[in-house]
Amino acid sequence: MPPIAVLLDLDDTLLTSNTARFVQAYLKRLSKALRPFAPPDVLVDLILRATRAIQLNEDPAVTNRQAFERVFLPGLDGSPADVTATLAHFYRHEYPALRRYVSPRPEAPLVVRHLLQAGHRVVLATNPIFPRTAIEQRMQWAGVHAFPYALVTAMENMHACKPNPRYYREILATIACPPERALMVGDDPANDIAPAREVGLKTWWIAPEEASLPPALSADFHGSLAEFLDWVQDGGLPRLFGE
C-alpha cells in the first residue's frame, strides 16, 4: 500500500496573504522592472494574457513556463536573453519586498513537520503560475522551505494549473500515488477543493471563520489550519484512509 500523500496549498493556507494588494504591488514592480521592453500598461495586459495561456494549455508536453513565454516574449521589444536576465534580477532583488503583504501562520511548519515525521508524503501544491524562485521565497516567508517535499509545483515543472483537474492528476502521476490515498488541503473552493474531489482526492477546506462552501461544492472536512493540525496529531489521516 503506497504512503498517504498530503497536498498543501500555500497562499492563505500555510501563510496569510493580502492577495489583492500583493498582486497589485507585484504587477507594479514587475512592470517597472520590464519598462525597457514595453510600456507598463502593455506589460500588465501581456502578463495577464500569458497567464491565461497557462490556464488554457492542454498540451501535456508544454510546461507552464513554455506556455507563458510563447505569449509573453514575442510581445516585448528585447531579446529573450535580456528579458530573462532582467526577470532574474527582479526576483532576486525586487520580489523580496512583497513580503510585507503576507504573514506566516505559526501552525504551518508544525503541520509539515508532523506529516513528514508520520511517514506521509507532502506536496507543496501551490498554483504553478509563478517561477520556482518566487514560490521558494513565499515558502521561506511561511517558514516551510526547509522540508523534503515529494514535489513542489512551479511553472517550470508542471503542465497544467489550478483549477484544471489535470494539475492534480499530474501531481499524483509524478509521485506515483493513487487518488484514493491522497488528501488536498487548501483555502480556495474552486481551485483546491472542487477539482481535487473530481479527481478522487479527499479534501480539507481551510475555511475562513463563519464561512460556508458554495451550495454546489462540498469538502470532506473543513476548519482552520490549527484545527487541521489537531486532527492530524490525533491520528485523523490513518483513520481517514482505513489504517
Distinctive features:
alpha/beta; two-stranded antiparallel ribbon; 6-stranded parallel β-sheet; 243 residues; 47% helix; 2 domains; single chain; 8 strands; 10 helices; Rossmann fold
What does this structure look like?
- With 243 residues, the protein is an alpha/beta fold.
- It folds into two domains: 5-17 and 102-240, HAD superfamily/HAD-like (Rossmann fold), CATH 3.40.50; 19-99.
- It is 47% helix and 12% strand.
- It has a six-stranded parallel β-sheet, sandwiched between helices. The chain has a two-stranded antiparallel sheet with strand order 2-3.
- Strand 6 (182-186), helix 8 and strand 7 form a beta-alpha-beta unit.
- Helix 1 (19-33) packs across helix 2, helix 5 runs parallel beside helix 9 (225-233) and helix 7 (165-175) packs across helix 8 (189-199).
- It is globular and about 60 Å long.
- The mean pLDDT is 95.
